[in-house]
Amino acid sequence: MSDAALHAAADQLGEDALRENIRHRVEAAGTSFYWAMRLLPRHRREGMYAIYAFCREVDDIADGDRPAEYKLAELARWHDEIEALYQERPRHLVARALSRPVQCYALRKEDFLAILAGMEMDARGDIRAPDLATLDLYCARVASAVGHLSVHIFGDPGHAAHAVAEALGRALQLTNILRDLAEDAARGRLYLPREILDRHGIRGTDPETILQHPALPAACRDVAAIAEAHFRDAECAMAQCSRRAMRPAAVMAAIYRATLSALQRSGWRDPAARVGVSNSLKLWLVLRHGLL
Prior knowledge:
Layout: H1 3-12, H2 15-29, H3 33-37, H4 42-63, H5 68-86, H6 93-105, H7 109-124, H8 132-154, H9 159-179, H10 181-186, H11 194-199, H12 207-211, H13 216-238, H14 247-266, H15 279-291
């Protein structure tokens, strides 16, 4: 839908219809985050849906097939939209859906801007074998910043909860990277860090070539070890938080940790093979970490 069409739709939709529209977007996406969002009371859940919808909007721009100049211009328009949101005059349908959560849960503008900065890293050019510092910055922007917004909606905006956001966001993003190697390579991207590739004698930056290298599984195991360390840090920080508020975060940690374990068992022998967690296991993890 074009930006003009979205503005027109936003003008026509009432608040209830607006929330319903966003809910359908999230449900249609089939995201694992949906399992954790369902644990929240309705108003908080709607706030998370709006954050997820925002992330999808800007991620779709960064991952699209248009030229870099177009992507950066569209992301710049989202910068303007976030400014308008904090001046209580949002225009875009998704920004309108964010209006209530921003006011009710004191969501920080800096976190929305960090997400946009992460999308701009992707939009400027294909990321290929970044150094560890650049990869960490990318994870902080595209994932940990989402966590910072989320803990406010969960109901625990304290220091320990933000520490959970920092660690868990990185753990989730690294798991995504290890899961989506072939999908990213098809876009010309490779997020495995240069230092780890060098450690295993993997040279060059061509994603498809690197995915065929016999040392790829060893490099992936090293990245998985970094993700595991972040999962442990998140778990330690979570112990200092409100258990009730952190239930969605605990569920996401459990689902993604199970995904990382499945990837480790697969050994990255076939990077194109889709590795995931069954719905039955996800349901068990929701019951164990979210309800019991």
